[in-house]
Glucose-1-phosphate adenylyltransferase (Beggiatoa alba B18LD), 465 residues
Amino acid sequence: MNDSATFLNKLTQKTLALVLAGGRGSRLHQLTDWRAKPAVPFGGKFRIIDFPLSNCMNSKIRRIGVITQYKSHSLIRHIQKGWGFLRGEFGEFVELLPAQQRLQESWYSGTANAVYQNLDIIRNHKPEYVLILAGDHIYKMDYSTMLAEHVKRKADLTVACLEVPLSMASSFGIMEVNKKGNIKTFTEKPEKPIALPNNPECALASMGIYIFNTDFLYDQLVIDATCEHSSHDFGKDIIPKLIKHHKVIAYPFRDVQNTGKSGYWRDVGTVDAYWEANMELIGVTPPLNLYDRDWSIWTYQEQLPPAKFVFNDDGRRGMAVDSMVSGGCIISGAMIENSLLFSNVIVNDYSTLKDCVILPDVRIGQHCRLNKVIIDKGCYIEAGTVIGEDLAEDAKRFYVSEKGVVLVTPEMLTQYIHESPTDYPRIRTKDSLVPLAEPPVLTNHPSHHTAKKGKKKSQKNPQLL
């Protein structure tokens, strides 16, 4: 047996991938108030779930189920719009598996229970192998080589793993392996993680990627479902019980980017980690290559015009330096530095942004100063707003992370866009909801071209370009 293309192709055709995408991701705080963690935007035009789904596509695994639960509407819409290109007549699909109480009168109560409640659907697809993936990590990986290793070594279960700093290891499932790569111990989020024998500064962590033989998976899920004391989680319950009596092996993570450096894998589960991972993309040689045509990341891409930069006057120059600016953006006499702007962002005259992550459909008024800020989708930042310079003052209105990243959402600005009949936010008063201001429009009104340099316009109804 070898890793020939024919051999790998046969294995992937016999595999069903299940992406666990039902979690809230509470450590992201208000970023997940209205969306599941896998649906959170990332990298200027993607969502987090695009990465495991794209890995499946590039690995030639074309039968995929996405298990959803918490506030899944935006996630479902994204998958329907961006991932409907597979051909059902060839047995290819991305299938949505929302919590339906198919086998129990309860919602998903753990990662293993989420798969258990879809056993009848798995049976209908008749896979020989089931690949289980977390839907909330950023990385590139060829699952077919992991599948080949699983089959060659005749394993019952294979767990993908990577080395993590010992200081961070308590957030992962930590394992010990013998010289053959068999897992000896597995502990979910231990208080005192066990260091690697050859590297006392690191521990061996699970990536939340598992390959099961299908029949074996069925048996273990049924046994777990009848256990009253189980939390029905793969890391906490199932894997530790299997180690003694079954062949459970570890598969070291192999990054397909071939950079010669340690593999790129990010858990963007906290506000700081999310901000840092987005900021990494702006670098001259970022650790994650989004321009790699050999391992493309697919997504739903809205049809938008190119980014636009207008005005070239002293003190009023539309420009971006060391930044990524997505389609549909208009930088009107503003300075963008070391920042990442998602689609349809408008930044107005005399405003400055530094070290910022701006999600889609944000409007930023004139004379604003934003520093080390994450602005959530749909926010309207009023003229003259300053965020990121006085963290103590910011903390009274916004969420401020341990490392000083300020997260701003519409609700923090009393802009209740989810309760508005239009896309434009409204402010809740004691008795009603009133418009924040006149809706912003794109215009070439002469006043914009004749405005005196440096002169601040009215903040009551700032004109947006």
